[in-house]
Structures are given as C-alpha cells and as structure tokens.
Write the structure tokens for this entry.
Amino acid sequence: MVNDNLAAHPQLAALVQNAAWSVPLTVAFYLVALWLFRRAKQSPLVNPVLLGMAGVMTTLHLTDTPYEDYFNGSQALHFLLGTATVALAIPLHQQLQHLRRTALPLVLSVGAGSLTAALSTLFCISWLGGSELTMRSLAAKSTTTPVAMAIAEQLEGLPALAAVAVIITGILGAIFGLGILRLTGIVDPRAQGIALGIAAHGIGTARALQVSHALGAYAGLGMGLSALFTALLVPPVWYLLGPYLVTG
Amino acid sequence: MMEHALGVKLAFDYRWTTHMPLALLALFGCQLAGDLLAEQFGIPIPGPVIGMMLMLAYLVVTGGVSESMQTIASPLLRHMSLLFIPAGSGILLYLELIKDEWLPIAVAITVSTLVTLLVSASVMRLGLSDRDTEQRGP
C-alpha cells in the first residue's frame, strides 16, 4: 500500500514507524479522545476507547506502519492491562461489603444474567451463520473489556473483536437500558442497577452513576460479580456447547 | 521535619519505607501467579482473572486496601481505557471478517444486551420481593 501523503516524506514515515513512538502515540490519542469525551458531557456515544483506536488506526494506515510493529512497540501498555485486570479486585473488594444485605438475589441475578448473555450471543451468531471465530471472540462480550479480552484469548478468539463488541454492547445498554427496564415495569433501583452492570459493564455503570449513587453502587456490584461469573462460566459453556453450535 | 535531597520538606521520610514496593510486589506477583497457574495447570480461566481472585484473597487476608495499594491501583483503574487501545486497534486486521459477518455480530450484540438486561433485572426483582415478604411475615 503506497501512501502519497508520506511517500514524499520518507524521514517522517521512518520516524512514526519507530517502535518507541507506539506508547506516546497511544497516550496522545487517548488524551484527545478523553478531552472530546468530556466536551460531550461524557455521553456514552463518544467513547474514549473507540476514538483512541480510530486515531491509532488512522495513523497506522497513513504511515503504512504494520499493526504488528505498533503492537510490539506498545507492549508496556499491554502488559499493564493485565495488571489493571488484577487491580479490579480492589473495587470488587469494596463492593463486596454491600453484598451481605442482598447476597442471594444478587448472586442469582448475576448468575442468570451472565449465563443468558453468553448463551444468547452464541445462539444468535450460530443461528445467523456466523463463524466459529466470531463465537469464540464474542462469547464473553457482555462483561468488562479486560476480562472479555482475556476470555477471547483463552478461547483462541480475537481479543480485538471482543473489545469492540464489548464497547458497543456497553454503549447500547447505557443509552437504552434504563428506558427498556422502565417500559417493562422494572423501577426498583436495585434491579435496574444490577441489570445495567451485568448487561453493560463499565459504560452502563458510568451511566447509572449519572442517575444516582444507589443505582451506580448496584451497577458496580453487577459489573464486578459478572466479570467473575463470566470468567468461571463462559469457558466451560463454550467447551460443552461449542461443537453443537458450530456443526448445527 | 525531614529535609528531602531535593529540598522538599516532608513530615516523614518516605524514601526507605517498604509499603509501596510491598504493594507493587503483591499486584505484579498476583498477575504473575495468575498467568503461571493458568498455564501450568491448564485452568480454563484467563490468567489475569485468576490474578484478580488471588488479589481479592490477599485483600481479605490482609484486612483491606492499604493506602499504597490505592495509590498504585487508582491511575491504572481510572485510565484503563488507555490500556485497551493497543490490543483493540488490532481490529484493523479483521475488517474483512466484520464486513462478512456484520449481521450476526450486530444481532447478537443487540439481542443479548436486551435479554440480559431483562433476565438480570427480573431475577433480582423476584429475589428481592421474596426476601421482603419473608421479612414482613409473622
């Protein structure tokens, strides 16, 4: 792929293709994306991850940089994604203090919700003739991005596709979730919050926090517990059901 | 008051305290242990999630989140979005797949989000109403 913009500036192209550029490039686009997100009053439609990815991908395209080179250069950030996933234990630990009061309904709701998310995703893809790779990538797409990416990797799917699907799921849930729940007569903030956290993870939780602290607290609990449940449930579900879904 | 080498006055000399490295070791240690456990024993749970469970156990055993741990973890958690960008941009390599399968992907995302919302909220409401009537009973 020859690019006219940079073909005339080989030195500039060589500079951008240098691996040391990956991290500052990513951080710079994240900064711009975050600024736009704040300018848009934190609307779920202006997602910082998708915007940052768009900036990086456009740069790679314009400079003819292979994605592999960029990714190798950004290993430091990618490594920290694993560390941040481990650190999710901290908010989960804090949320578990709330658990005592409504433990049984919470656990049942999270179990049922996480299982429903995985099964409905797999059945829809299978029914509409999607590929096995897509099923492996999206099986955990309702849970928080780092966990969904780790599960996609575990199931030999595509973590990148998982990340995009997770974010779109979260945006949908954040925009339409509360309206749908109200339409079906679910008005209890505990039920609304937990459902937003399970179905729309961090993006749904951010939306819930904009409404009320109680809604946000239950959404956070739903998100944290469903990450745990999804990680425990989805791999065995896939190993059990996968062969039937792929041939059937 | 201690005089720091750079001339900053500190109420207490933090330079040689061990809280911060201990918290770092716990965090990176859980990450490593999670990866090793997932790899060595073929546990069908992603390594970072095993690490998260180990970390949770560590927090329960040590009686909560220390100030140092909070200091290390909060920027990681608050700006986790930044960390998704390198791997997420890999979608660039699979644009063909999305073009071919946009319909199953779009339907799966929409239907599963809707159904998951309704199932989770309904189960929660059912559980709560059971508990509420129990409490109100004689």
Observations:
- The longest helix of chain B spans residues 95-136.
- The longest strand of chain B covers residues 2-3.
